Amino acid sequence: MIATTGDANVSAIRLSRRLRTLYRCHREFFQAQNELGLLQSVCETLVAGDEVCLAWIGYSEDDVEKTLRPVAKAGHHLDFLDQVKISCGESESRRDPSGTAIRTNEPCRINNIQADPRDSPWRSAAIAQGFDSCIAVPLIAPDRRLGAVDLRGALRF
Predict the structure, then answer these.
(1) DSSP assignment, residue 4?
(2) Domain residue extents for the chain
(3) Tens digits of per-residue pLDDT, 48-99?
C-alpha cells in the first residue's frame, strides 16, 4: 500500500502526540513523591489524548485466582473495572488482555474488540462501554511478574 500525503500527515501527528505523552510520563517519573502517585499520574497522562478512554494499572495478587487489583486508574468508564474480575490465573476472566500479557510476558493487543472471537465477560463489558481496541503491557521485575498497564479506547496501532 502506498501512503498518501494525508496518511503521512496523520502518522506524523500521531507519532508526535505519542512522543509528547512519553515525555510527560518520563517527567512524572522524576517528579513523583511515591509509587502510587506516580502510577496515578501516568494513567492521567495516558488519557489526556483522544485515543485512550481508560488507562489503568493493576498489580497481581498472590491469591488462588491470581487476581489483578487496580492500583491506579484514570479516564472515562471507570466502572468497567467494577464490572469484570480480571486475573492471570486459570479462570475464564484470565482471557482479558491484562491477564494474557502477564501470563505470556508479552504485550497483548486487540485491534477490534467487536471482531475478537473470544467470548468472555471482559469483552462484553468492553463492547458495552464502547471501547474499540485495547493494549495491555506486562510490568515485569527480574524475579517476578508485577502486573500490567492496560489502555482501552480508540487506539490506532
Answers:
(1) P
(2) 5-153
(3) 877 889 999 999 988 888 889 999 999 988 999 988 888 887 766 557 899 8
Look at residues 149, 156, 136, 155 and name the one whose alpha carbon lies nearest to residue 53.
155
Burial grade of 119 (CB within 10 A; 0-12, 13-18, 19 or more) = exposed
Query: Residue 154 in 3-state DSSP?
Result: coil
Pure H helices in 3-75: 5-31, 35-46
Sheet holding 52-60, edge to edge: 68-75, 52-60, 144-153, 133-141, 108-110
Confirm if 103 and 94 have CB atoms less than 8 A apart.
Answer: yes
Q: Hey, what CATH class is 5-153 in? A: alpha beta
Q: Is the pTM of this model over 0.70?
A: yes
Cell numbers 510527560 correspond to 24
